[in-house]
Amino acid sequence: MRYPLVTHDPPLFQAPAESPPPSAHAPHVTVLSPSVRDLTFEGRDGVPVRVRGQLLAFGTSERDEHSHTTEFATRSERCSACRWFEVNIALVEAEIATDDCTCASSPNGDHEASCGLEPPSGRYLVVTAGRTVVPEEMNFRRAEFTDSPLEVVELLRVESARDRVAREAAGRSESEATRTLPPISARALAQAAAYDDDLRSAYLAYSAARS
Ligand SMILES: [Zn+2]
Ligand SMILES: [Zn+2]
Predict the structure, then answer these.
(1) Is residue 18 included in any domain, yes or no?
(2) β-pair partners for 140
(3) What is the spatial distance between Cα 17 and Cα 7, in angstroms, rounded to a whole number?
(4) In this structure, are residues 167 and 176 in contact, taking their beta carbons and an 8 Å threshold?
(5) Is residue 200 situated within a structural domain?
(6) Which of the ligands is closest to the CA of residue 115?
(7) What is the model's pLDDT at position 16?
(8) Which ligand is nearest to the CA of 81?
(9) What is the distance between the alpha carbons of residues 53 and 35, in angstroms, rounded to a whole number?
(10) Does residue 102 lie within any of the structural domains?
(11) Residue 72 lies in a domain
């Protein structure tokens, strides 16, 4: 990835530990919950959002291969190496604001364990980004806290470009927009559902209502 959206301390993407040989006494697959870490996301206008919690899901539509021979896709060309969508869903224990840190400086600059910890603005943090490498185009980022698993789903529903064109052609206002879950967001929700029962219920309810 060219510009990591999320950084981790300690690093999240470590080589997987050597897994123990499967035991005859433990035939069931256990889904291990992501560990609690300090996570930094880029929010609106690139302002960092720092939390301590579990990264339940990450998804991206980014592709390595460009679909065109020019350096960048034109306005109407679709290329997921030029423009893509990213989503992160975190279960939050605390927000971190070390701006007013009063820790005595340790030799390696570490903060004390509870430094800057504040009650979270919500149990879940949903970070979405529309990314682009095309010059003159803007990255759009959003970071929203919510306590509601249903709202997590709502935050991920968007109006597709095709639906928007059709709605505008019909002269209907934005409040009448049809919003759906993009495939990347649906996959991220499905990932998160493996670790969080409330998100699982919300995602299943959404899927059932649409089928
Ligand atoms: Zn491209
Ligand atoms: Zn500190």
Answers:
(1) no
(2) 130
(3) 20
(4) yes
(5) yes
(6) 2
(7) 47
(8) 1
(9) 8
(10) yes
(11) yes
**By residue range, what is the domain housing residue 122?**
7-13+33-210
Tracing tokens 């981790």 back to the chain, one arrives at 8
Q: How far is CA 55 from the centre of its chain?
A: 8
How many angstroms does the Cα of residue 72 sit away from the middle of ligand 1?
Answer: 5
**pLDDT (0 to 100) of residue 46:** 84
Enter the pTM of the model. Answer: 0.80
Of the ligands numbered here, which is closest to the C-alpha atom of 74?
A: 1
| pLDDT digit string, tens, across residues 32-56 | 899 999 999 999 988 999 999 999 9
Query: How close is the Cα of 61 to the center of ligand 2, in Å?
Result: 36
**Residue pair 122/78 in contact by the 8 Å Cβ criterion:** no
Helix (H) or strand (E) holding 191: helix 183-193
197-210 and 183-193 helices cross at what angle (nearest 10)?
140
Smallest Cα–Cα separation from 156: which of 119, 193, 121, 120? 193
Structural domain count, the chain: 1
Q: Which residues have a beta carbon within 5 Å of ligand 2, which is an ion?
A: 98, 101, 103, 111, 115
From ligand 2's centre to the CA of 38, what distance in Å?
13
Q: What SS3 string covers 143-189?
A: EEEECCHHHHHHHHCECCHHHHHHHHHCCCCHHHCCCECCHHHHHHH
From the CA of 117, the nearest ligand is: 2
